[in-house]
Amino acid sequence: xxxxxxxxxxxxxxxxxxxxxxxxxxxxxxxxxxxxxxxxxxxxxxxxxxxxxxxxxxxxxxxxxxxxxxxxxxxxxxxxxxxxxxxxxxxxxxxxxxxxxxxxxxxxxxxxxxxxxxxxxxxxxxxxxxxxxxxxxxxxxxxxxxxxxxxxxxxxxxxxxxxxxxxxxxxxxxxxxxxx
Length: 180
Known about the structure:
This protein is mostly helical. It contains 6 helices and no strands.
């Protein structure tokens, strides 16, 4: 695939409106999936170059950077904190030399691989939380605080929601596409 070829993200998962009445775990998972699908929708149909485009200078943010960032966020919260795993490598996209590498180092990044990594992290999360109590305490504390799965899920919805606002602006600047 060359940088001007078709989008690496041409079939997004369906964006299903969360139920209006459900138990808390169902509601949180549904809202998280809704916002994951929203990010995918904002990237749908764009070429690799468009996904890498930093369309709000001087910000280094791009749609691909958001995908990479959310892959790391999914990976860290559910593998590292909730399950207590030691991650190798600890961070895919950033390092001490490049603390914002998920955003800064997209020029030569492979959108197909990065989208696949994000999708794999999302699949891991879904499998990990299936049937798990919201009161489950993460095996690793965050900044000295015990956190529950409930807290992590609320945080993830907030994280996606905030970054989907960025994605709205980035996508509109790239090709004029707007919408929820």
